[in-house]
Amino acid sequence: MTRIGVVTFPGTLDDRDAARAVRLAGGEPVALWHADADLRGVDAVVLPGGFSYGDYLRAGAISRFAPVMGEVVEAAGKGMPVLGICNGFQVLTEAHLLPGSMIKNDHLHFVCREQVLSVESTDTAWTGEYAAGERITIPLKNQDGQYVADESTLDELEGEGRVVFRYEDTNPNGSRRGIAGISNAKGNVVGLMPHPEHAVEAGFGPDGARGPRSGTDGLRFFTSVMRSLVS
Ligand SMILES: NC(=O)CC[C@H](N)C(=O)O
């Protein structure tokens, strides 16, 4: 069975939902602690959402120095799939596994909504089971969700097909070019602000009466990575 590590930092709050998403997708979740010095032989890693180290200094800025992150950076460099969700995305930018930064939402308020995204790239370890251009609805909840990078970095991301998700219908936080998620050049590392792990079970995720898969648009992140590991 595919073993997917879920990292808990002090202040993480979505680790249990991430572990549950892994289980519902057919994988085995493995709890990793921020102070761990090894990844316990996992096949992939999820950095979940929350307020690691209280978002002090800057969201993700302290977590980046946690012992487990040294292992995650090394494994990611060797091609291990890594997914950063919300605070996890913030950690990935702070750790320089992904370019750019997350700053306060442009309206300066916390945002909590069901967010429509377009899947712009299916060429990553975490999105292979989506259709290019597909619209999905998953929850978004954060205060530091505005993705920023300089123009040349944004052009490079667009040119290399590394914009993985874009906000649809509305830009909820002022992110440059409506970017909701990006990948590294190899496509094994993906970060996004909205939360796929909160939309994995019918009746609990965003509903919207959109048919039989309603509320489960996030599940294919986790089935995609398992498929990418066996193929
Ligand atoms: N949901 C989350 O992971 C929150 C992320 C981060 N602490 C923020 O508020 O921006």
CATH superfamily: Class I glutamine amidotransferase (GATase) domain
Strand order of the largest sheet: 2-1-3-4-11-10-9-6-7
The total number of structural domains is 1
Main beta sheet:
9 strands, mixed
Count, helices: 5
Overall mean pLDDT stands at 95
User: Class in CATH?
Assistant: Alpha Beta
Radius of gyration: 16 Å
Small molecules bound in the structure, each named once? glutamine
Annotated CATH architecture: 3-Layer(aba) Sandwich
Beta-strand portion reads 15-25%
Give me the secondary-structure category.
Answer: alpha/beta
How would the global form be characterised? globular
Number of strands: 11
Q: What's the CATH topology name?
A: Rossmann fold
N-to-C SSE string, H for helix and E for strand: EHEEHEHEEEEHEEEH
EC number: 6.3.5.3, 3.5.1.2
Catalytic activity: L-glutamine + H2O = L-glutamate + NH4(+); N(2)-formyl-N(1)-(5-phospho-beta-D-ribosyl)glycinamide + L-glutamine + ATP + H2O = 2-formamido-N(1)-(5-O-phospho-beta-D-ribosyl)acetamidine + L-glutamate + ADP + phosphate + H(+)
Main location: cytoplasm
GO cellular component, one term: cytoplasm
